[in-house]
Write a structure and sequence with these properties.
Keywords: Membrane, Transmembrane, Transmembrane helix. By secondary structure, this protein is mainly alpha-helical. The chain has helices at 2-21, 26-56. The two termini are 39 Å apart. 14% of the residues are buried.
């Protein structure tokens, strides 16, 4: 979870610095910081959710396309 927060913070900081360098106001840079950070956080969490769902159905990894093995497999 810490990695998600760090990615969001870095994205927001880069966006706000770019806004300040482009000559916008501090409030616009702050809004861009919050918006970009939250957007990046939501995208990373969505990607993690999709990967978890695919892994649960066995559609990722080296066993993709094969029947999952259980203790009762013959």
């Amino acid at each position: 979870m810490l990695a998600f927060i760090l990615i969001a913070a870095a994205t927001g900081m880069l966006a706000s610095i770019a806004a300040l360098l482009a000559g916008s106001s501090v409030w616009a840079a702050l809004a861009l910081y919050v918006g970009a950070g939250m957007g990046a956080l939501l995208l990373v969490l969505l990607r993690a959710f999709i990967c978890d769902v695919l892994q649960e159905f066995g559609l990722t990894g080296k066993n993709a396309g094969t029947k999952p093995k259980t203790n009762h497999s013959v």
